[in-house]
Design a protein that fits this description.
five-stranded antiparallel sheet, two-stranded antiparallel sheet, single chain, about 170 residues, elongated
């Protein structure tokens, strides 16, 4: 009797203990590995949720519908002033892309930069978001934005780059 009671308690403990571990699997630990502080010490966003919402806005404009996104990586590009952050993301339905956030102008030559200022609240004022919108998915399945010596340009790794149009948004 004692053995069967202990066996039942052990099975129930294992079953309920397993449920707790399953719910822990779905905790999104990827957010903790994203660095929001640029090499110059400025924050690119107040929180990760603010950055995710910003990226989701751009993805919605790019794909023409509301999409949930997950940020995979933030890459900081070298610059003498301000910051240039490339954010790589993936939508939950499998589309991957990127965008560039900067607080300096990237139009024309990167040698001629104009620094945006910080507001009194500590937030970065005047962010510019660069992304690429695809006008024909048959000719280019995945348009991406990249920083070049001439500024910011759209590229297509698997097709015709002419259908990728640079989008510039001030925040």
């Amino acid at each position: 009797m004692k053995n069967s009671l202990l066996l039942i308690i052990a099975i129930l403990g294992f079953a309920f203990g397993s449920c707790d571990k399953e719910s822990d699997e779905f905790v999104d630990n990827s957010k903790t590995s994203i660095n929001l502080i640029a090499p110059n010490g400025q924050r690119i966003a107040a929180t990760i949720d603010v950055l995710v919402n910003l990226v989701a806005e751009v993805a919605e404009e790019k794909y023409g519908e509301n999409k949930d996104v997950e940020i995979n990586d933030v890459i900081y590009h070298d610059t003498d002033q301000g910051f240039i952050a490339e954010i790589r993301y993936m939508t939950y339905d499998g589309h991957s892309s990127n965008l560039i956030i900067s607080n300096i102008t990237l139009d024309g030559s990167l040698d001629m930069k104009r620094m945006k200022t910080r507001s009194e609240g500590g937030d970065t004022d005047g962010l510019t978001i660069y992304s690429c919108k695809n006008e024909d998915r048959r000719k280019c399945p995945d348009c991406e934005v990249a920083k070049t010596q001439e500024g910011v340009k759209c590229f297509c790794s698997k097709g015709d780059r002419s259908v990728c149009k640079l989008q510039k948004k001030q925040k």
